[in-house]
Design a protein that fits this description.
16 helices, Aspartate Aminotransferase, domain 1, 7-stranded mixed β-sheet, 418 residues
């Protein structure tokens, strides 16, 4: 932060400084958080922030967009290359906005849509009753099996056959296992439904070639640009087959949004170049291996993981087996300078304000440079807090670990800079 910025508004500058100190001195295990590169941060808030570029390249509602057009074309081509898709829209302000825009454009209120239950790992924009998407369409839901807390594709097929939805949405916010997109494609085609993948949590792992891609199976893919993608928090991408391109573009503008934020599109374009570099592929692999190291530490010290573990960056602890609640463990970890979030678990009997689980992820700490050994040790110490009933000595032990391992540690490790 420059001296000029500090002099303009001391109050806001102090808050920015305090937030930076907090992020540097704590460790984030929030599965939906990450740290973008200095290059991405540098283009967010650039001169493009002041340009009104309502519309699409070559079809803007205002003049003076020749460089904005070139910028958006670059972002689109980089998105198509990174994900191997036929069409990309880079204007959505968030993945949730992208989701709702698609629903409004492609479906009628009488249409049925199908998605994963929120409590089993789905997302609120996939038909939650308190969300606009839940009020505007007819929904049916599938979930995980009680036996292994993973998707039962035979059950998914039965629900689809019984309800004949216009689209099947897969992907969510707290499902720790990979989804078999080929099986979901087969089910969707059997009932003549579109297959729509919400890739927000695992997009970086796909772009980094660490896990299978939803293409060519998916008709539509939506994603945010942070989380495992390690890009700017503001923004969503819509990737789709060319046959849907015109309708998808209309869904965003003029269907729901006005002018795009061109500085964010610049930051996304930089991100979409970064994810195609070899170092990002190394990063994506490390995110997965570090999540497995964290899993080993948690399991060997006696905690219970939903579905038995993870196949991605995300783990979901069932803390009820130790007689705890998610909010208790969240508070104890925060006391130790570890940031995580309480989360419902499948078949949870606790209210969301308490929750039976804790959601954690490996992406942000991997960006900071944590390796597998430190993730394992972190898992062991966290598990001891859970199993000991938030014992004060265990909390202090973890706090010391955080202090020792964050001193001088940047938010974005230099080894990831190409």
């Amino acid at each position: 932060m420059s001296d000029v910025t500090t002099a303009v508004d001391i109050e806001i500058s102090n808050l920015v400084r305090l937030e930076e100190d907090r992020q540097l001195s704590q460790i984030s295990l929030v599965a939906s958080e990450n740290y973008s590169s200095p290059a991405v941060r540098g283009f967010e808030g650039s001169i493009f922030a002041d340009k009104n570029a309502e519309g699409y390249p070559g079809k803007r509602c205002v003049s003076g967009c020749e460089y904005a057009d070139q910028l958006e074309h670059l972002a689109i081509e980089r998105a198509k290359s990174a994900f191997g898709c036929e069409h990309a829209n880079v204007q959505a302000m968030s993945a949730t906005i992208a989701n709702f825009a698609i629903m409004n454009e492609l479906f009628q209120p009488s249409d049925g849509l199908m998605a994963m239950r929120l409590q089993d790992g789905g997302h609120l924009s996939h038909g939650a009753p308190f969300h606009a998407s839940g009020r505007n369409f007819r929904w049916c839901f599938y979930g995980v099996s009680e036996t292994n807390e993973q998707l039962d594709y035979d059950e998914v097929r039965s629900i689809a056959l019984a309800n004949r939805p216009a689209a099947i949405i897969c992907g969510g916010s707290s499902y720790p296992r990979l989804i078999d997109y080929e099986k979901m494609h087969q089910i969707s085609r059997e009932v003549d439904a579109l297959l729509w993948v919400d890739l927000a949590h695992t997009a970086g792992l796909v772009a980094g070639r660490a896990i299978p891609s939803p293409f060519p199976h998916a008709d539509i893919v939506t994603t945010s640009t942070h989380k495992t993608l390690r890009g700017p928090r503001g923004g969503g991408l819509i990737l789709c087959k060319s046959s849907l391109a015109n309708r998808i573009d209309r869904a965003i503008f003029p269907g729901l949004q006005g002018a795009p934020k061109m500085d964010l599109i610049a930051a996304r374009a930089v991100l979409l170049a970064e994810v195609q570099a070899a170092r990002f592929q190394d990063y994506a692999r490390d995110v997965l291996s570090n999540a497995k190291a964290l899993e080993r530490g948690l399991l060997c010290a006696g905690t219970t993981l939903v579905s038995g573990g993870t196949s991605s960056h995300l783990l979901l602890l069932n803390v009820t087996t130790c007689g705890r609640t998610g909010d208790e463990i969240e508070s104890a970890l925060l006391d130790a300078q570890v940031v995580a979030n309480k989360n419902p678990i499948p078949f949870d009997t606790l209210p969301p304000s308490k929750a039976g689980g804790l959601r954690i992820g490996s992406a942000a700490l991997t960006t900071r440079g944590f390796d597998g050994d430190r993730f394992f040790d972190l898992g062991v110490m966290m598990a001891k807090i859970v199993t000991s009933g938030c014992n004060r000595n265990r909390v202090n032990e973890l706090r010391s670990f955080v202090r020792e391992n964050t001193q001088g540690l940047p938010l974005f490790n230099r080894k990831w800079v190409a």
